[in-house]
Specification:
0% helix; OB fold (Dihydrolipoamide Acetyltransferase, E2P); SH3 type barrels; 5-stranded antiparallel β-sheet; single chain; flat; 16 strands; mainly beta
Length: 188
């Protein structure tokens, strides 16, 4: 057991029969009354974000997590199959654990957060950016570039991303995985 003085960003804890990670916190000492810690926490099982306030000195149950690097292999009817990069052991994880499954490309590396005491996967962290090739998009209209216009494009994983008009079939684009948004064109 730990106290609220150990709360920091990235800390994982058991709270209300779930595992939560702290994504924001603030220690508050008002002029009157007792100190408290305001937190913003994200559930590692459902992805739900909640605000919570702990009184100063409150005991919290810290969960020790370890990050393991995995490589995405393929998807089948059982789920998404990954290979551990250290011991080459294969594991299957359900689609609900993956934040953006439509951006998963075979051979791409991800990190899986494991509860180190129970050896259970908690969540998957995708890389911040991923580079994918455009497989289909309509040609851009000439002279339609005065505004910040965009068009839909299908990438090699089957996901549809909004891209600028100058992007063509065969171009490689950099995509931010958190928002599934176009960042830039990548030169080979």
């Amino acid at each position: 057991m730990a106290s609220t003085s150990e709360i920091k960003n990235g800390l994982c804890m058991n709270y209300n029969h779930d595992v939560w990670v702290v994504v924001g916190f603030q220690h508050v000492k008002p002029g009157k009354g007792a100190a408290f810690v305001r937190t913003k926490m994200k559930s590692l099982t459902s992805g739900k974000v909640v605000d919570n306030t702990f009184p100063a000195g409150h005991k919290i149950d810290i969960v020790r997590v370890e990050r393991r690097k995995f490589q995405y292999l393929y998807k089948d009817d059982m789920g998404y199959n990954f290979m551990n990069n250290e011991d080459y052991e294969q594991t299957t994880l359900p689609e609900m654990m993956i934040p953006k499954p439509e951006l998963m490309k075979e051979g791409s590396n991800i990190e899986v957060l494991y509860d180190s005491q129970k050896d259970v996967p908690l969540t998957i962290e995708m890389p911040q950016y991923i580079v994918l090739e455009v497989t289909y998009t309509e040609p851009g209209e000439k002279g339609n570039t005065a505004t910040n216009a965009g068009k839909p494009a299908t990438v090699e994983t089957g996901a549809e991303i909004k891209v600028p008009l100058f992007i063509n079939i065969g171009d490689k684009i950099k995509i931010e995985t958190a928002t599934s948004s176009y960042m830039e064109r990548v030169k080979d």
